Predict the 3D structure of the following.
Amino acid sequence: MSFIPGIPVPIGAIEKELGKLWEESGDTKTRASLINLAIYNEKPGSLERNTEIIRGIAGEHAMRAILVQSDPMAEGSSAEAWITMHCYLRGSQGGSVCSEQVSFELSGMAARSLQSVVFSHLDSDLPLCLWWQADFRPPIDGKLWRWVDRLLFDSRHWKNPKDQFDLIRQIAGLAEARTVLCDLNWARSLPVRQALASIFDAPGTLPELEFLGKLEIDHAPGSRTTALLLAGWLADRLGWSLSKPTANPEFCDRNGRTVSVDLNETEGASISRMQLSSGNAEFHLHRESGSDLYVTTATGTDIPTTSRMVRAPREETREILLAELSRGGRHPLYTKAVRAVEGLWT
Amino acid sequence: MPSPTSNPLREGIANRLSPEPCTLVIFGATGDLTHRKLIPALYNLAAEGALPPALTIIGFARREKTSEQFRKELEESTRKFSRTPLNEELWAQFASSIIYHQSPFDQAEGYTAFARQMEEADRQRGTGGNRLYYLAVAPDQFPVILGHLRESGLSTATPGSWARVIVEKPFGKDLKSAQLLNTLVSEVFPECDTYRIDHYLGKETAQNIMVMRFANSIFESLWDSNHISHVQITAVEPLGVEGRAGYYDTSGAMRDMIQNHLLQLLTLTAMEPPTSLSADAIRDEKVKVLRSLRPLRGDDVFKHVVRAQYTAGLINGQPVPGYREADGVPKDSTTETYVALQVNIDNWRWAGVPFFIRTAKRMPKGGTEIAITFKSVPRVLFNQTGEGLDENVLVIRIQPDEGVSLRMSAKMPGSSLRIEPVKMDFHYGTSFGKATPEAYERLLLDAMSGDATLFARRDEVEEAWAFVDGIEEAWKTRSDDLAFHTAGSWGPAEAADLAARHGVTWRRM
């Protein structure tokens, strides 16, 4: 492995070595932590990528980061660990604030004992956010998931969303609803949902929601699940039920009218355009390629034409993760949105 | 089915009321407040998509200029004062909602034309007849502006819409003038539509006082006279009057800081838990604290209050002139630039706990904090020696370096038993790296949403003035109590004596 994620330490001496690291750093460094963020990945090279992400967010969301690169299918058993700190200058006094990172490379038996190897190094009394960057696999290990306060994952990367969502539901059930499900794909759609919702704050627009007959979503290659989650969100919010589960599906609204949905793959932002049409009005959200703005417009016969611009966040994983960690809370609408388009997950 | 008033797409997106489409009218739009605070705050809200979808901002002021000139000036100041960088595209769209209306405040015709402008904006932008008037002018302009708003019918909301007014401090200069001002405002706007702004209440840390007290059982269970020895509330700054001499010399530290900001912090510190988080439930509890303040009148004032003025000295090694040498200050001014007072809250929770309040200019450094000092442990075990142990002190830092710290005792490592104070420190900036919104962002959004929680209610303002008036009246009877301290020092000896009478020393900031 060419990337070295810190100082190598024996697993049994991680806390002691972290203590030494602090002692050596002198009085100018302050340790800060709001959460334990554990990231689990089974692909080679993940420690380097995830260290980059942690370096990017630790300055804004102090944490103890625990990175795991695991190969549970390997023969035998091996476990290696490294420690490091990410420090940022703060204030005029010249001091810096630091977050700790513990990295593990596990294979074989050690990889299958995640709980004992990794979770014994949590910063006690702080919540555990586990970002699972691998596929979920049955059987679900109840002992593992009950430790987790927030389970982060990104449904955009799933090759088999249907099975994955089923497993996610099992995990949420196992943990007696204590674990908060945080799909970064759902977090990715938040700025779009905010911008879209704000269109309907304008006078006269709200009644049009009852008469929507067509929804178009342009999404980037690989972002079809993001688009489906948005469709699911609208369906749940507006009381639509799925009537035709095809590639370009149809819903039935509360009054029995058909709402057609067009999902178009196009280059650009993960969601670059949405258009909602009722008989009398059109509602449009657009993000130009490379732009950091959403432009929304509402036009129609009975509503004043309005147009707004709002900042669109960068779509880097770092930004999305940071937004999700800062926002906190539960996501009750997420499960409803997933359910509303259940027949469309393949 | 979506109700006609609630946007079903908003659920789960934000946990606050949505601001409603409106026209925001800023009286005194060419002033410092508009340029430094209001427009930068509105721009940042626009950039975040937090403003209502339809918003017109009308700057109402006396100076001759076009809307285009006005927007250009605002662009420059926003570039300078905004907490986020100016994005040209965003600014262009935001600025398109800004209009300048030139008129003297006392000309009826100006308001007629202004009314037409607002109606036009309603038609074009869909602002729905909702009006938010921001009086960013000196209080002597209030009567004429409010009078014209009433006479022109602009203060009355049309059915299904609202008309609100935001009033900037100072809310009067004593109880009588505050009552007059409040009566004047109330003749034009009902209390529920009157928003008295105190920007201290918009600060994150001020809002966190309630969270810290009522969301943490370890603090609230100790928050009374059984466990707390005394409380110090301090707001000091190294600056002098900095061009505000005309206002400051007629106001002084008592009216400028104590009557509003510091008494607000006192109420948040001492209030009982409200029955809910509604604006009135919280303000009811705050008013009860003000009503429980033991009045200071006559000779009591000179026992419990110290006023002082700074003389020439050094700040950060640089010589600074004394208060009386500042431009615009009379050479024989007796206006206080330093106030220290000890107050008592006569209620069950706080009986016997002295509260010390201090504000000053030209201190060695600046800062605002609330320090809660807990009672000492009994003089047994570790507290038997003559020296005693340091008390636990919980400090809530409002600004700068917002955060909370707790001083406690710990054993020094070694074979002997030596106990030393150690500090547990929480810094907002350390744990939450992201920039916090400016107080005005929160307050403007709240006013557009109809949430008055962070605004002062009439009775709060008047109770605070009633308390302060007693002190001001006593001060009028003599001036020989005015003490002096060198700029760059921590205040006069008299203030140290005041604290010492209660066995207390003022905290070093």
The mean pLDDT of chain A is 88.
